[in-house]
């Protein structure tokens, strides 16, 4: 078995593997061309046949994210997933990273076994929420109180609210975005502001981060929402209004909550926990840390 960087001619083989993953629904085809171009996508060869793949993404300098381990259907149940993960980890460690993380769901018991076997440690746990269909919202609220933050504004008060929130503390400073969890630094906050993803009340007593769903960019997801009760109510209903306005027929509005406060906010907004998939685990490789 050999891991090598994927090239355009591998596209057909990768798509064939993806077509038989997760009952025919796989996010890999959505990102395949981008991943081949940016690097970090590896195919697994055995006797000149591509039998698997995996992806390493640099979210920020030194912050590496592992995902998309796939094995061709006829080669499954032979321990190849563990071998691929081990080889990927070796390559990743050789880059001398600042962090190595990945995520999986409670129902993915095979992946959980491999992840723990390789020495990853549980870093944070999120409940998984979803909003089905076009949401309704309270039209009586004053949405003029909501302001999209701009680069030329003083946003330290908004960032301070984020840093002091229960969600930031319980999640150990991770920002969820459709199954990818980034280290939420002030630099990332400024980037989100520059991309016009951050909203706040005029008095900065509430902050909302509304991101395009990675699997369906026309759909939006509430990545962060906190503040005092009135601000959360206004910002939350503003988010529902924006989600409804942006939504197409295929609505993919996900939500991840690590703390009780965010769970309560989602419940208030009618965003419900998934019954079939309750917990999402983020793992971190120790890198010599205690």
In short:
Helices cover 32% and strands 32% of the residues. The protein has 290 residues and is of the alpha+beta class. The longest helix is centred in the C-terminal third of the chain and has 18 residues.
Describe what this molecule looks like in 3D:
By secondary structure, this protein is α+β, with helices and mostly antiparallel strands. It folds into two domains: 2-97, Gcn5-related N-acetyltransferase (GNAT) (Aminopeptidase), CATH 3.40.630; 130-281, Aminopeptidase. Helices cover 32% and strands 32% of the residues. It contains nine helices and 15 strands. It has helices at 11-19, 28-38, 80-94, 109-117, 156-164, 166-170, 186-194, 229-246, 260-268, and strands at residues 2-5, 41-46, 49-60, 63-71, 99-105, 121-131, 146-148, 174-177, 180-183, 198-201, 206-212, 220-227, 253-257, 272-273, 279-284. Strands 1, 2, 3, 4, 5, 6, 13, 14 and 15 form a nine-stranded mixed sheet that branches. Strands 7-10-11-12 form a four-stranded antiparallel sheet, sandwiched between helices. It has a two-stranded antiparallel ribbon with strand order 8-9. A hairpin with a 2-residue loop joins strand 2 and strand 3. The protein is elongated, with a radius of gyration of 20 Å. The chain starts with a strand and ends in a 6-residue tail after the last strand. The mean pLDDT is 92.
Keywords:
290 residues, alpha+beta, Aminopeptidase, 2 domains, four-stranded antiparallel β-sheet, 9 helices, 15 strands, 32% helix
What is the helix fraction of residues, given as a range?
25-40%
Number of helices: 9
The shape, in one word, is: elongated
* Major beta-sheet overview: 9 strands, mixed
- In CATH, the topology of the largest domain is named Aminopeptidase
Number of strands: 15
Order of helices and strands: EHHEEEHEHEEHHEEHEEEHEHEE
Low-confidence stretches: none
Oligomer: single chain
The CATH architecture of the largest domain can be given as 3-Layer(aba) Sandwich
